[in-house]
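Dear colleague,

Thank you for sharing your sequence with our group. We've completed the structure prediction you requested, and as agreed, I am returning the results in plain text so they can be pasted directly into your records. Please verify that the sequence below matches your submission; if there's any discrepancy, let me know and we will rerun it promptly.
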Amino acid sequence: MFSEVYDVIVVGAGHAGSEAAAAAANMGSKTLLVTMNLQNIAQMSCNPAMGGIAKGQIVREIDALGGYSGLVSDTSAIQFKMLNKSKGPAMWSPRVQSDRMMFAEHWRLRLEGTPNLDFYQEMVAGLIVENGAVVGIKTSLGLKIKGKSVVLTNGTFLNGLIHIGDKNFGGGRSGERASTGITEELIQLGFESGRMKTGTPPRVDGRSLDYSKMVEQPGDEKPSKFSYLDETKPLSKQRSCYMTYTSPEVHELLKEGFDRSPMFNGRIQSVGPRYCPSIEDKINRFADKDRHQLFIEPEGWHTCEVYVNGFSTSLPEDVQFKALRSVAGFEKVKFFRPGYAIEYDYFPPTQLKHTLETKLVDGLYFAGQINGTTGYEEAASQGLMAGINAALKVQEKESFILKRDEAYIGVLVDDLITKGTEEPYRMFTSRAEYRTLLRQDNADFRLTKKSFDLGLASEKRLRKMEEKKEKSLDFVSYLQDTSVTPEYSNPVLEAKDSSPMKQSDKIFKIFSRPNITMEDVMEFPGVNEFIAENELNEEMLEQTEIQVKYAGYINKEKNNADKLHRLEDIKIPQNFDYSNIKSMSFEAREKLNKIQPVSVSQASRISGVSPSDISVLLVYMGR
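Please find the predicted structure tokens below.
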């Protein structure tokens, strides 16, 4: 049935698997995507949204690298918001509310339109490993499919166990069976495994809600989009979300079910996401708060199904229902399905290389929740990187690794394999020490050329990025070289309560003042003419403003990144034995021997390795 040998076999078709399969196939590798149910490709298992704080930056990076998440998000969006606009541009984060069914449909159609990609529906029960390298997979029906590399993206399906109150049953998510066999086989191969948990709120009938008692949350007046390509357009109409709150009464009703909650009665012992706790966990941990926000998110353009963001729970369904009916606007709520928690197997990611290839089995890659992460965006970015590197390995080309100052994706992967994680890992802007460099507006500048070199980005995409970059820099140069007299500048400055000028000065310097905007600068002679002559669009104007306003911060971070690269360049030999360095702390030797960093820079980021340990290492290496 499968006589040929695939270059890349991707197991699982969630966000990680879909990006992995697309990347490998688009790079020319003969790819097979195997999943338990082809109807659920790229299913939004939890909230119907993409992006958000730091996550929006990741989606833009995926797009710049030639992935599909940004394009699919744009074409299935029902609302767009740029979060954190009141803060500096390093914090701006795009987010879309998605049409859940349309999102999955558009993903499937894109994958079906991708050359070199085959599909097969069945459960993968194990791997075929020979001489320390993966050579294929085994299915539950006993079929053996040969492959030169395998990417595992099993999500929450590995021995998945669903909890609703005192009931539990096997499942990868609601209505779908769990995947068995792979964990046990990986443990036999020498892998260390663990258990994590996540949860999801009830879905309810929007027709039963009273939105007049809630606060409307509309999208942006001038919505943008994720993809840098002209293939997608900003939304011309949007659906609103709504906000309401829990209350002391709701909390008391929820507490009545705590003795039946698997969170508190010992049934669930695995660790859940700290930054997305269940409602019972919030009430327990934040007992001083008498209310918590709930966001009411429509699941699509036409469906009446609604997602109750902020009410993730594993409490018994009767307790969920009773408590939710006490929330303002939910007095007559009807359930589509209750919330639940799910426990699943994961593999601590310190067992991986920067390519996401496992250290133990050659040609085997892990991506997504199998690595202990949470979130569609984190999963998709790992899938993209694993798919790229699996294809490169088969093609006998140099691997593709992003540094911490090049992308949030680089931060994510480095955090996982260097520090590991004992709770579901979620990306935040605070995790990135170079976040002024890693903005959502410049992901194309940072990554398009790399993607083009990989064969993912088209020449058209590359030229579009180069034009944006060139015209933005030309405008910055114009502002640096052009002066304005007090006659023209002072009326603008006085209107903004900014100190007037006594003599002519460069527009760049005036523009650098915190309360002066692009609209103000456009009142100066010659500026509008320059913009018109050079055909500068909104993206170019925004890029120019950021480059002017944050020049000092950007240059400072570039200098810091250059220092980091000097340590990155000091490579550590493979299988280096740290046991002999007696003047290094015992904890450092133990951690370094386990993780086997590839550079001194990576070694310095390992938890438990101090600056003095690094100094000792440098001396030992003769540096």
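Summary note from our side: The CA atoms of residues 367 and 461 lie 27 Å apart.

Kind regards,
the structure core
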